[in-house]
């Protein structure tokens, strides 16, 4: 049995556009993965379902197909077995070039078994979410700019949408119009399917993630010549301001900066931060961990070491009054990574590795016995 999009959003089958938008806002905020760290898998699935339901019910053409044929008919490229006549509608009624809104055109025909419409493929739920709240003024409880206690919808550690853009499937205009013209007809942008984003890794050193930096990336893209229609290569410099504290997995998206497709739509470019391995430090959330090797003598009698920090300072760690155990960890407050949202730094965790001698002379053994009793 297919999904019940109305039940997913919690609306009646005769719900109007405003009701559907309000329901989506409520459910999307409720199930956003950033708000459900303890049940991330369930939240991810429900969040995707909520986005899918909104994408269908907010588009009158998709909604009409769904109401008549359900999810299976909408996604399967035609009505369920026995659900309609030869043309995909009861009695074989035919409609040609019927626009599907969200980048998909439903082409209903009066033909035989070969008729039907193109299957619906749901957009990425995060794209729907971020562009919905970008278009409708933030994700704060009052629908404004996300004031105190408001959820902005885009976690600064996870995703940065650079630039504007409409809702996937052309739902990106003003709240009242949903990307349609005054006459209610879909715009040309609505009818063009959004091409998939180009995703590329962005390796960044731990030093740059600690201090922040500016990355300038040269992108070679293909655009169509206005006179010939043929693709031509052009270069463009994209600038990324790396914030202190960014983590691996942070995404930076440049809408429309990729190759131009035959339908006139340009691909988005999305960079995903990768953290380069560091010879001295390992990141653990906002903390840093480093290993200091000690001889057995130093572990028993004391030591002093200098550690060079990620921003070039010299940090002194020492011990003179206690015995260091193998694997023991000492904590240096506020010498870890900065948090990109709060600016507060984590701690530096210094783990000690004690090197034991491989052999001892009889005299050394006797001296140790005498010293340790």
Describe this structure in words.
With 373 residues, the chain is an alpha/beta fold. Among the domains are: 1-75, Helix Hairpins (Orthogonal Bundle); 198-275, HSP40/DNAj peptide-binding domain (Sandwich); 281-355, Urease metallochaperone UreE, N-terminal domain (HSP40/DNAj peptide-binding domain, Sandwich), CATH 2.60.260.20. The protein has 9 helices and 14 strands. It has helices at 5-9, 17-31, 40-57, 60-76, 125-135, 188-191, 206-211, 296-301, 362-372, and strands spanning 98-99, 105-106, 159-161, 198-204, 213-224, 231-242, 251-254, 269-275, 281-284, 287-295, 303-308, 314-319, 329-332, 348-355. The strands form 5 sheets. The protein has a 4-stranded mixed sheet. A hairpin with a 5-residue loop joins strand 1 (98-99) and strand 2. Helix 2 packs antiparallel against helix 3 (40-57) and helix 3 crosses helix 5. It is elongated, with a radius of gyration of 29 Å. Pfam families: DnaJ, DnaJ_C. Residues 71-91 are annotated as: Disordered.
Shape: elongated
The ordered string of helix (H) and strand (E) elements is HHHHEEHEHEHEEEEEEHEEEEH
Number of strands: 14
Q: What is the terminal-to-terminal distance?
A: 78 Å
CATH architectural name of the domain at 198-275: Sandwich
Secondary-structure-based class equals alpha/beta
Rg on CA atoms, Å: 29 Å
Estimate the helix proportion, in percent. 10-25%
The tally of helices reads 9
Fraction in beta strands: 15-25%
> Mind telling me the CATH superfamily name of the domain at 198-275?
Urease metallochaperone UreE, N-terminal domain
Tell me, rounded to a whole number, the average pLDDT.
Answer: 77
By CATH reckoning, the class of the domain at 198-275 would read Mainly Beta
Keywords: Chaperone
Domain J: 4-70
Protein name: J domain-containing protein
GO molecular function, one term: unfolded protein binding
């Amino acid at each position: 049995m297919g999904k019940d999009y109305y039940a997913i959003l919690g609306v009646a089958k005769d719900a109007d556009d405003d009701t559907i938008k309000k329901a989506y806002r409520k459910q999307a905020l409720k199930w956003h993965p950033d708000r459900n760290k303890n049940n991330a898998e369930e939240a991810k699935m429900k969040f995707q379902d909520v986005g899918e339901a909104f994408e269908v019910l907010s588009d009158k053409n998709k909604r009409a197909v769904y109401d008549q044929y359900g999810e299976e008919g909408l996604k399967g490229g035609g009505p369920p077995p026995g659900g309609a006549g030869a043309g995909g509608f009861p009695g074989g009624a035919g409609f040609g070039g019927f626009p599907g809104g969200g980048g998909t055109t439903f082409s209903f025909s009066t033909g035989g078994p070969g008729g039907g419409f193109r299957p619906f493929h749901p957009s990425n739920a995060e794209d729907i979410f971020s562009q919905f709240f970008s278009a409708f003024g933030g994700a704060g409880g009052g629908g404004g700019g996300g004031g105190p206690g408001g959820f902005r919808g885009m976690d600064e550690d996870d995703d940065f949408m650079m630039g504007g853009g409409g809702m996937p499937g052309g739902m990106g205009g003003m709240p009242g119009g949903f990307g349609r013209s005054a006459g209610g007809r879909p715009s040309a942008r609505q009818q063009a399917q959004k091409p998939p984003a180009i995703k590329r890794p962005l390796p960044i050193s731990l030093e740059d993630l600690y201090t922040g930096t500016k990355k300038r990336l040269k992108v070679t893209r293909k655009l169509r010549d206005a006179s010939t229609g043929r693709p031509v290569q052009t270069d463009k410099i994209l600038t990324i301001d790396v914030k202190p504290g960014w983590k691996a997995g942070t995404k930076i998206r440049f809408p429309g900066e990729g190759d131009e497709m035959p339908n006139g739509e340009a691909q988005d470019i999305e960079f995903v931060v990768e953290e380069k391995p560091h010879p001295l430090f390992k990141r653990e959330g906002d903390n840093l961990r480093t290993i200091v090797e000690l001889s057995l003598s130093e572990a028993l009698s004391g030591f002093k070491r200098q550690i060079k920090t990620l921003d070039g300072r010299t940090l002194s760690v020492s011990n003179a009054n206690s015995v260091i155990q193998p694997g023991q960890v000492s904590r240096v407050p506020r010498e870890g990574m900065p948090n990109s949202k709060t600016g507060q730094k984590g701690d530096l965790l210094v783990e000690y590795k004690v090197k034991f001698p491989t052999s001892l002379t009889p005299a050394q053994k006797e001296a140790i016995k005498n010293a340790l009793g």
